[in-house]
Specification:
By secondary structure, the protein is mainly α. The chain has one domain (about 5-105). The protein is built from four helices and no strands. The chain has helices at about 5-30, 45, 50-80, 85-105. It is elongated and about 50 Å long.
């Protein structure tokens, strides 16, 4: 049996995950800082301290990971496989951990460094 062969699974994945994928693409390209919560509310002076491309790419990776594990979870759930809940739990732990790590990094990973381009 192939994945995503059930019409209801295909429909749900299109409705739920295609919009997230469309959000992830510009973020992965380093664009779309207005989509990143918290970053979009900063003043221009505050934003100048951060590397917007790094912030956007990190958020894009997080969104892309969420899309992938969400699609796998829905597929397993529709097939009534008990492993779906393990995938869900593992995905949630990883997503929350990654979001927490992005926001509390002691090394200030997203601050501009000397010599970074501002383009």
């Amino acid at each position: 049996m192939m994945m995503f062969d059930d019409p209801s699974t295909i429909f749900f994945n299109l409705v739920a995950f295609v919009p997230l994928l469309l959000i992830a693409i510009p973020l992965l390209m380093g664009k779309g800082g207005f989509l990143v919560a918290g970053f979009n509310m900063m003043s221009k002076n505050e934003k100048a301290k951060f590397d917007e491309k790094r912030v956007c790419r990190s958020a894009g990776v997080l969104v892309l990971f969420t899309v992938i594990y969400g699609m796998v979870f829905i597929e397993l759930l529709m097939r009534e496989i008990m492993a779906a809940w393990i995938v869900f739990a593992a995905g949630m732990v990883l997503t929350i951990g990654a979001a927490f790590g992005m926001n509390t990094t002691p090394g200030k990973r997203f601050l501009m460094k000397k010599g970074d381009n501002l383009d």
